């Protein structure tokens, strides 16, 4: 089948090879910034223990990388097994044919009937429903399918970049985990941040898409694309309207129930259609599970490299220096500084989901679960994604080292999500 490539110079193999290896500079930059921050703490504050903390962070993150890989072994093996049943039953091919005309507008180098389109659709649906344990394995499989069309095996293609940025922007319709954290901290209305999160994550996703569209010169005025965007906005508005009519307790329980039912329904649909089409479901599952094992194994070097660099950066105190700078600027401009107490969640979220979760819980405990600071931190937590982890996992799964404009566009989406969260929270709770 002939490859369809985007008719612009940015996507040509020659242009791709000429791009500087951004991940190399970024990874080295983490260590340089960490070193400067540590020296500032040692010389300026006499904190010689910062170097011990950085070394400890290196080993802690190396151990965490192995733990993450072990977790991925299970989830990837499980979901890629079920996904192989769906492929052999023709479900992925059906999705690809149905959505091919739309994807041809935004990913012109991907043939309309390519299996990557169906996998991308399933990944977006799982992300929207907050089904992370299903979204990641499906997304990794989609990235591997896109790699089969990539003219340069170690450099991200336009389609891979768009797919990664939309994943990193994390459009989530049902932020069940945020409701759970608020319940644990005693919130009387755990779903109070539902609409703010939905608005902020929508802004993040839209910003990420527009950033990639600008760089890749995607024709946004295409009639079909405009109709699809309008339909998505209409459905999102209707979804918000329906859920806002429910009591808070019903909303939280419905979110959990809908997510679990959807997850189990997908599995049953794969098995039912597979059995109907006489697919050997057990053999297909084992075949796909074997591939999941191989993908998880190959991820370890990329996880160790990225997570260790992030750990050193956090332990050095560089993020605290950044927070102090923002506080000084806000005070100089005579701005309301309440939002600054929620920024630790925003600063660490691109680097570590677990660290951002810890920051969120700390903010709830320090200021009160329904304080402005805690509500803003919860909104930020639900509207952005762990960008560098996503880059390491998704690109690491296919051996991509040259990411081109992927990180820049993903961080722009993160920034848009944080700014939108701040604006929405001042609107709702200010």
* Proportion of helical residues: over 70%
How are helices and strands ordered from N to C?
HHHHHHHHHHHHHHHHHH
Report the biggest beta sheet as strand number plus sense, adding barrel if it closes.
none
Whole-number mean pLDDT? 80
**What does the overall shape look like?**
globular
Outline the low-pLDDT stretches. Answer: 1-20
**What's the β-strand tally?**
0
Number of helical regions: 18
- What gyration radius follows from the Cα positions, in whole Å? 22 Å
Overall tally of structural domains: 1
Residue share in β-strands = under 5%
Give the terminus-to-terminus CA distance: 56 Å
Structural class: mainly alpha
Characterization of the model:
This protein is mainly α and 430 residues long. The protein has one domain. The chain is 77% helix and 0% strand. Helix 3 (49-89) crosses helix 11 (248-276), helix 7 runs antiparallel to helix 17 and helix 16 runs antiparallel to helix 18 (406-429). The longest helix is centred in the first third of the chain and has 41 residues, at 49-89. The protein is globular and about 70 Å long. Residues 1-20 have low confidence and may be disordered.
């Amino acid at each position: 089948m002939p490859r369809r490539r985007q008719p612009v110079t940015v996507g040509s193999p020659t242009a791709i090879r000429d791009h500087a290896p951004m991940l190399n500079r970024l990874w080295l930059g983490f260590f340089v910034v960490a070193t400067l921050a540590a020296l500032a703490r040692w010389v300026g504050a006499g904190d010689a223990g910062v170097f011990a903390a950085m070394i400890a962070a290196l080993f802690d993150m190396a151990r965490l990388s192995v733990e993450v890989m072990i977790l991925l072994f299970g989830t990837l093996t499980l979901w890629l097994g079920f996904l192989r049943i769906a492929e052999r039953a023709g479900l992925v091919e059906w999705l690809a044919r149905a959505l091919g005309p739309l994807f041809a507008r935004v990913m012109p180098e991907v043939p309309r009937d390519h299996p990557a389109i169906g996998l991308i659709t399933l990944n977006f649906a799982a992300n929207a429903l907050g089904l992370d344990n299903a979204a990641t394995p499906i997304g990794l499989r989609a990235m591997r399918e896109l790699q089969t069309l990539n003219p340069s095996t170690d450099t991200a293609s336009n389609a891979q970049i768009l797919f990664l940025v939309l994943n990193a922007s994390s459009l989530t319709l049902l932020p069940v985990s945020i409701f759970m954290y608020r319940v644990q901290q005693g919130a009387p209305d755990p779903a109070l941040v539902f609409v703010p999160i939905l608005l902020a994550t929508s802004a993040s996703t839209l910003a990420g898409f527009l950033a990639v569209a600008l760089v890749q010169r995607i024709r946004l005025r295409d009639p079909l694309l405009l109709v699809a965007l309008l339909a998505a906005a209409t459905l999102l508005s209707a979804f918000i309207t329906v859920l806002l009519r429910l009591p808070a307790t019903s909303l939280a329980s419905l979110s959990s129930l809908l997510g679990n039912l959807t997850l189990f329904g997908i599995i049953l649909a794969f098995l039912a259609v597979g059995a109907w089409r006489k697919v050997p479901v057990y053999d297909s599952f084992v075949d796909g599970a074997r591939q999941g094992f191989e993908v998880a194994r190959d991820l370890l070097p990329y996880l160790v490299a990225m997570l260790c660099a992030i750990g050193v950066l956090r332990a050095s105190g560089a993020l605290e220096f950044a927070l102090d700078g923002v506080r000084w600027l806000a005070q100089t401009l005579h701005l309301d500084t309440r939002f600054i107490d929620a920024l630790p969640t925003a600063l660490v979220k691109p680097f570590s989901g677990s660290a951002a979760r810890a920051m969120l819980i700390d903010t709830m405990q320090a200021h009160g679960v329904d304080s402005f600071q805690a509500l803003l931190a919860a909104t930020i937590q639900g509207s952005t994604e762990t960008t560098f982890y996503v880059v390491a996992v998704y690109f690491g799964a296919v051996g991509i080292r040259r990411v081109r404009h992927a990180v820049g566009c993903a961080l722009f989406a993160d920034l848009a999500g944080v700014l939108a969260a701040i604006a929405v929270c001042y609107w709702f709770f200010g």
